């Protein structure tokens, strides 16, 4: 692949004036801004050099193998992967919360703003993947619905949730005006056209799924179609493309866990894309997928071991019993309350069953949840953290990405 294997962005200077003058005087006096104009990509050809092509083929093949072996039989693995991915995708945006608070937010019980944001990111990602799976298409409407999910519970952003931006935005630099920026996306009036071009590219079937997902993500980040949430929706799009292309039919490997380990290189790879080099972000995504897939094999084995250990600790409940069914459920939902179990499983005497597993050491009640008790399965939550840590450790060993 050449140094410029993809059309670079072009740039144009446009008039600019703050809508509500504020901030430093130099920001209030800004009268023009140079915006980036990404290429239209719907019909572009992509020629991968042999090493990068081999990486994408190998990573997609490994992902399909994991999905084939564990995708249908281990629902808990997908739930754990999806949540690990949403958590680490949020961390890239410096949004972090404890797993306990995150769990309370998932249940709709009072939690801090970061935990609520992480729970909303999980819902948005699941929505986008589910839509791609059921329709076999990536659509602008699905992207808008995912964005609605991401910000519906946000007090400051709910009014613009699920809507493309109508104002100029920017990345980095001043908070008040597009000065000293890292990237100024295309003008707001071009967003809808760019998104329709993007989804046309995303719905092609003649490209490597990994390369296609990488370019869809990079192009989306260049368009930056929302005021906020572009990174999380853009990374969710990676999984939507992989699901539409059937690179994975059931699982969502935590690719963001590898990207967060190389946050600066990840952003530099997006800059390479804007300069006309797609190879960097493609190689990074392929390597990240391979690492996440490899570590997910270990997590699948760990979940099976955890489930076996629970059965022994709980005295070997018979198949079909309330305790047996709840133990199976815990591999999918390691943070729960009575309402979730009742709604999901329809068990009788849910409090008694939960208390029995608490006595067996399978469940622990979260502190400060006396009025609305919430229990966690510590062994599964520990594996969530360990999966993320292992992926990040392995990612740091690889010199992929730009300088």
Automatic annotation (TrEMBL):
InterPro entries, A to Z: Fido (IPR003812), Fido-like_dom_sf (IPR036597), Fido_containing (IPR040198)
Organism source for this protein? Nocardioides luteus
Where along the chain is ATP bound? Answer: 171-183, 228-235
Q: For this protein, what is any one GO molecular function term?
A: ATP binding
Keywords of the record, alphabetical order, are: ATP-binding, Nucleotide-binding
Name all Fido domain ranges.
Answer: 138-287
**Listed name of the protein:** Fic protein
Source domain of life is: Bacteria
Q: Where are the transmembrane segments?
A: none
PANTHER family documented for this protein: FIDO DOMAIN-CONTAINING PROTEIN, FIDO DOMAIN-CONTAINING PROTEIN DDB_G0283145
- Active site residues of this protein: 224
